[in-house]
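Feature request disguised as a bug report, sorry. It would help if multi-protein outputs had a clear separator. Right now it looks like this:
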Amino acid sequence: MAFNIDIIKALYSQLAGKVEAARKITGKPLTLSEKILYSHLSSEETPRAFSRGKDYVDFAPDRIACQDATAQMALLQFMQAGKAQVAVPTTVHCDHLIQAKLGADKDLQAALNSSNEVFNFLESVSRKYGIGFWKPGAGIIHQVVLENYAFPGGMMIGTDSHTVNAGGLGMVAIGVGGADAVDVMVGMPWELKFPKLIGVKLTGKLSGWSSPKDVILKVAGILTAKGGTDAIVEYFGEGAASMSCTGKGTICNMGAEIGATTSTFGYDDSMERYLRATGRDDVADAANEVREHLNGDPEVYANPEQYFDQVIEIDLNTLLPHLNGPFTPDLATPVGEMTEKATKNDWPLDVEWGLIGSCTNSSYEDLSRAASVAKQAIEKGLKTKAEFGINPGSEQVRFTAERDGLLQVFEDLDATIFTNACGPCIGQWARAGAEDKKKNTIVHSFNRNFAKRADGNPNTHAFVGSPELVAAVAIAGRLDFNPITDTLTNDKGEQVKFEEPTGLELPPLGFDVEDAGYLEPDADGSGIAINVKEDSERLQLLESFSPWDGKNISGAKLLIKAYGKCTTDHISMAGPWLRFRGHLDNIANNTLIGGVNAFNMETNSVKSQITGEYGAVPDTQRAYKAVGIPTVIIGDHNYGEGSSREHAAMQPRHLGVSVVMVKSFARIHETNLKKQGVLALTFANSDDYDKIQEDDTFNFTDLADFAPQKQITIELVHSDGSKDTILGNHTYNEAQIEWFKAGSALNLIKLKNK
C-alpha cells in the first residue's frame, strides 16, 4: 500500500470539480500542467485566470522531499520556526554524503564513519518532527521518491533541483531551496510565479540505440540551458505513451538542465504498470477512476499551438543517440557527428571512464539495457578500454538487479559497483589522479557535466549519454564510437559489431528487497532532544540575519564581477565541501571560489578596495564585513544555474553581501536570494554589465522606495571620479519585499509564530 494514500484519495475525490471550475475560470480547455496547478491552489489563494510568467500564485503541495546535503540547512531553519511537527508529509534521504571510491560496502562504511554526526542529526530531527527517514544506502532521493511517493496529478516540492524526476509519474514536482520547503513544512502556502507552458509532441516510437535520454538531450540542444526558465515542459503524443515510466522520469529529470520549472507526462498504462510493480495497486486503482483528469484535454493536444506558449515536435522514429557536452549539458551532438566536432574542438577522443547511474538513469530498465551491451562485449571477446562505475538508484533496484544477474555482468567487465547514492554525479568521487588536472574525457549517464563537477578536475571533458551508449563508448574507449555503424576488434583479431541493446521495463520476477532502509518517525517526538555540539565542524545552529534598516545602500563595493557561466557549483562547490553543508560559517569559505573574475580571468582572485591587493573571494568578503562595508556581486546570464542548493544564497548573505545584480537569473537561485534577504536585481540594460569597473562604488539611490515593478536606480562611482547611472529591474511582489525588510523569509515566519 502507498504512503499517505488518504491524501491521494482526497485529492482525487475533488479533482473533477476543481478541473471543471478551472475550465470555467479560464474559459478554455486545460493542459495537464494547468489541471495540476489549479487543483493545488492554496486555500488562501483566490482562483482566477492567472497570467503565465507574471502572476505570483500560492499553492498547497502534497508533500516535500529533502536530500541530506540540503536537508541539514532546511531542518536547521525549520527548528527555528517553533512548530512541533511538519504540516505536510516530508521525507529525508541520505544520498549525497557517500563518496565513491572503492566500492559499495567500503564506501558506505567510510561515510558512516565520517558523517555519523550529520546522519544522527538528520535522523533525530526526522523522528522528532514527524519526518520519514531513508538511511544512507537506501538510495538516491529521486529514484526512491518515484518508487514510493510520486503519484499522478500530485504536486510536490523538494530541496534538490532534480525533484522534477517525479514528473515521470505524472506529478508537478519542483525543486526549491530549503527556505521554500520550510514555508510548506510550517503550514504556509508555497509561492511560485505561474509558469509558462512548453509543449513537446512526441511522435513515432524509440528503437535501436535511441532512448528516452536522447529525447531530453535533443530538447536541451533546442532550448539551451536557460530555454525552459519559468516554464513547465509538458510531453504528449503517441511517442510519450510508448515509453516506460522510468524513461519518462529520465526526461523530466534532465529538464532541470534547461532551467525548466518542471516537466511532466499524462497518466498512462506505463505509469499504471509501474505503480503496480512497486506495490501501489491502491494508487493505480484510484488514478484509473480519474484518468481523464490526469491528462490534458483532447482539444489541447489536437491543437497544441493554441494552448502552449511554445511547441516542439520530435519524431522518435528518426531520433539518433546523442552525447551532450563537454562542460554544459545542452551542447548536443548526434553520435555520427562526433568525430568531426571533437577533432575541430580538440576534445580528447580516448575515453577513460564510463559511469552509469545517478538519479537520472539508475532504474532497473536502465541497468538492464546497459547490461545487455556489457554482456555482448563479454560474449564477443571484447576487452573494455575504459573503467566502469555503476551507481544503482535504490536498494530495491540494486537488490533486484543483483538477484537477476545484471550486476554480475558489469562485475565480469571489472566494473566497480558503487553505493546506491549520487557519487560522481555530484562530485563525490575520489578519482585517482584527478589532482593532476590532466586533460581527459569521461562519459556518463548523469545529468550535469559542468567543469570540475564529477572529479574536481577542470580539464575533465564530461559527456552525457544514455546508459547503453555510455556502456558501448566506454567499452570501445573512443568518444566518437558509433555503435550503429562501427565495429571493434576482439581478442581473436575479428571485427565485431554490437547488436541493438535490449532491456526490461520492469523485472519479470518483480521487485524485491530485504531492507529498503526506511525509518518511520516517532508517533510523539516531543521528548527527543536535538544536540549540536558548540565546537562541531559539521553542524552549526543558525542565527537570524539582520533586518533591513529601511535606508538606501550607499558606499557599496564590488566583490566580484563574474564572467560567463556561474552556476551554483561555482558559487558553492560540492565534492569535499559537502561535509560542511550543516555549518554555514565553515562552508562560507568556498563562496564563489569557482567564479571567474572578469577583470583578471582567474578564479578565487579578487581585488580588495580596502588594501588594493588580490585575494581569495571569501577572505576579501570577510574583510569587508568586518568593517561594515556592503558589497555587490555582478553576474552574467542564467546566474545560479544548476543545483537548487540554497547555500549559494545563504553563504554570500552570511558573509555580508547585500546585492546580487546580473543579466538574468536561474529561477531557483533568484528565489533563494530573495528568501535570504539578499537584494536580487537584473540589469535593465544588459550592456550595463560592461560599465562595471573593478574599483567601483555603488550607491542605490531610491531603494528606500522599494516597491513592486519599480526600477531601482544605481549610481556607479568609478575610481577616476566619473559616474554612470544604471537601472536595475526586480521581480519582487509585496510579500517578497516583506522578506527583504525582515532580513529573510524565515525571520518573517518567526515573527508570525511568536
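(second protein starts here, but nothing in the output says so)
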Amino acid sequence: MREQQLQSILRHMPAGIATLLGPELRYGFVNEAMQALLGGDTPEGQPLANHLGTLAADLLEVMQQVYQSGRPYVAKAYALPLPGEAGQAATPRYFDLALEPLQDEDEQTQGLLLFAVDVTGQEEARQRAHELALETRRLDARLRVLTETAPQITFSVDADGQYEYVSPQWYYFTGQPPTADLNAIWPLLIHPDDRLRVLYQSDAARAGGIGWSFEYRLRRHDGQYRWVLSRALPELHAPDKAVFWHGAVTEIHDQRELAEALRRGEAELRFLADSIAQLIWTATAEGFIDYYNRHTAEYTGRTPEELGPTGWVGLLDPSEQAAAARRWVQSVASGADYEGLYRMRRHDGVYRWHIIRARRLTDSRGLRWFGTCTDVDDQHRLREVLQSQYDELARTNRDLDTFVYTASHDLKQPLFNLRGLFEELKRTATFHDPEQKDILVMVDEALRQLDSTLQELAATVQDQRELATPTEALDLSSVVEEVLLGLRTQVQETQAFIDIQTQEAPTLVYGRANLRSVLHNLLSNALKFAHPARAPHIVLTSRLSPTGKPELTVRDNGLGMRLRGGTAPAFHLFERQHPRVPGAGVGLYLVQRILDSHGGHLEVSSAVNEGTTFTVHWFE
C-alpha cells in the first residue's frame, strides 16, 4: 500500500524520474514528466538504446560509464529538443540530469536512477547575462578607445573628490609621469588665480549631487597655462545618490583668445562708429535695426529706444517714406545692396538730403545688415547751383556759337558786295597816285584776309559742334585720301610729295568728322607753311606706341616754328607763327581741342627752316 502511494507521488512529480535496470539499461519505472521528456515511447523492459527518444547518443554513453563506474554524475543545463505543438519546430529545453547508480546490499550496481529537473528559465537567464556581459565588455572597450583617442582629458571622480580614472591625454598634456599621485598633483597644476575657485565649485557640485561646468587655466607640459573647460555629470545610484562624476577637460585656449579678440574688435569698431559724424546702424537678417551709433541720437534728437527697429524710415520726409520702405523690403528679400537719396529730419525739424546705403554681410555669426545715412545736403544744394550755372553756361555757349556762326554767315554777303564794288572800281575808276598799285594790292589782300577769317570762324564753330560725334572703326588711308582730294589744288600748286605709311596701324576707332578735321589741319598747315626754296615733302605715318596705342606722325620740311613750352605747347586761338603766310591761327587750336576731348594729346618738334613733326597720341 505504501509502495503504491510512493509510486503515485513520484508519477505525478513535475521533475522527470526514471529507473534504468541492468547493464542494458532497460526501462523500469518512468513517471509522466519523464514520459513527456522522452517523447512518450518508453516500453517497460526495453533497452534504452532502442528507444532513446529525445536523448542523444553521447548521453547514453555517459549513462553506461556511470553504470560501470558506480559513481553518480550530474549533467548541468543539458539541452533536449522537445517537440513543439502541432506544426511547430522542436524547441530546446534545458535540464539538470542526475544519474545515480542503484545498488543492492552487496553494493553491486543494479541500474541507474535518472532524475531530470527543468532549468530552462535559469539557463536562458544565465545565457542572457553572459551575452550582456560580453556586450558590456565590448562597449566598455569601445568607450575606452573613444575616450583615449578623443582630443580631451576624460576622468572619473568619486563622491570624496578622489580620481578613479583619467585618460592618457592627461599625461600627454601635463607631462606628468604615470606614477605621480593624481589627486595630489592635479590641484597644483591649476593657475593660482583660479585654484580656489575651481576647488570650491567642484566641492559644491559634489555636495549638491549636480554636475559642473567651468573654465580655468591648467599648466601644460611646457610650463604655459592654457585655458580649459571642465564639465562633469553625476552617476546616480539608488536612492538618487551620486556616487561618481564622469567628465572631460577640453582645451579652449585658442577659442577663448579668439573670442577675446572679437570682443576687443567689436568694442573698437563700436568706439569708431560712435566717433564718426555719420549715422551708422546695423540690422538683423529680417531688416530690423538693432544698433544705432551715438551720432544718430545726437543728430535726430531721439534715443535708440524711441527710434525703434525701423527708425530711419520714420525720419524721412512723409512723401518719401513709403517708397523708401518698399525698396528696403525688396533689398532684405533679395539681398541686393540698398542705396537711395532722401530728405531726413534733423533734431531741429529741418529736412536735409541724405544718401542712405546698406549692405548685407554673412559670416560665422550669421546674416546682418550694415547701413549708413550720410548728410549730403550741402553738396546736393551746391550741385544744384553748379548744374544751374552749367546749364546757363551751356546755353550761353550755344548762343555764342550761334551768334558767331550767324555773324560769319551774315558778313559774307557784305564782303561779296565789297569785293564786287572793288572789282568794279578797279575796272572803271582811275586816279593818279604813284602808290596806286600797292594800294590796290593791300585792299585786295585785306578783303581776302577778311574772307578767310570768316570761313575759319564758321569752321571753328562747326568743328566744336562735332566733338561729340559717335566713333567707328575707320580706314585711315581712306580718310587721308579723302582729305587730300579736298587739298588737290594746294598740292598741285606747291608740287608737294606726300608719303602715306599706314600699314602698321591701318585702322582707328574715332569720330569721322574729328579725324578728318585733324588730318585736314595738319596736312593743310604742312602745305601752307612750305619753304619757298624747296617743294614740300610730307610723310604721314600711322604706328603703334610701345604700350600698344595707335599714334599718327606728320613730318614736313617746311618753315618750322619756334616752340614755347617744350614738346607739348599750348596753341591758342588766332595765334600765328608766320604772320606773312595767310591764315587765321585756329587750325592747331582745333586739333588740340579735338585730341584733348578724346583723351589724347599733341606733341611737336620743330626746327626753323628745317621742318616740323607733329605726333598725334589719339589716346593716353
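Even a blank line would do. Unrelated, but nice: The domain at 150-257 is CATH 3.30.450.20 (Beta-Lactamase).
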